[in-house]
Amino acid sequence: MSIVKVIEVIASSEKGIEDALQNAVTEVSKTIRNIDSVWLKDTKVHVKDGKIISYGVICKVSFRISDEI
Q1: CB of 21 within 8 A of CB of 57?
Q2: Where does residue 32 rank: exposed (0-12), middle (13-18), buried (19+ CB within 10 A)?
Q3: pLDDT of residue 2
Q4: 3-state secondary structure the chain
Q5: Dihedral over Cα of 36, 66, 31, 59: its sign
Q6: Domains of the chain, CATH where assigned
Q7: CB 21 within 8 A of CB 59
Q8: 36: CB partners within 8 A, 6+ apart
Q9: CB atoms within 10 A of CB 28
Q10: What is the reported pTM?
């Protein structure tokens, strides 16, 4: 039987939304195994002097809980 856990994370990037999502997956992968999917919950941009300076995402990461030790 598989159990799936979901955590919510926030990540950012100066390059774009896709890069911010990749940053979220990269960081979560450092401590979490068996990632199945990422759901993009919300996005935002930071603006300075009328220009976008960074992109932020709030996402939910789902992963399978392993019963192996």
Answers
A1: yes
A2: middle
A3: 81
A4: CCEEEEEEEEEEECCCHHHHHHHHHHHHHCCCCCEEEEEEEEEEEEEECCEEEEEEEEEEEEEEECCCC
A5: positive
A6: 3-65 (3.30.1660.10)
A7: yes
A8: 4, 62, 63, 64
A9: 18
A10: 0.85
> 66 is written with which tokens?
């392993």
The one-digit pLDDT tens for each residue of the chain (69 residues) are 789 999 999 999 999 999 999 999 999 999 999 999 999 999 999 999 999 999 999 999 999 997 665
Biggest alpha carbon distance in the chain? 53
Could you tell me how far CA 45 lies from the centroid of its own chain?
A: 15
Q: Residue 69 has what pLDDT?
A: 54
Token pair, residue 33, equals: 């195994």
Please give the pLDDT value at position 52.
Answer: 97
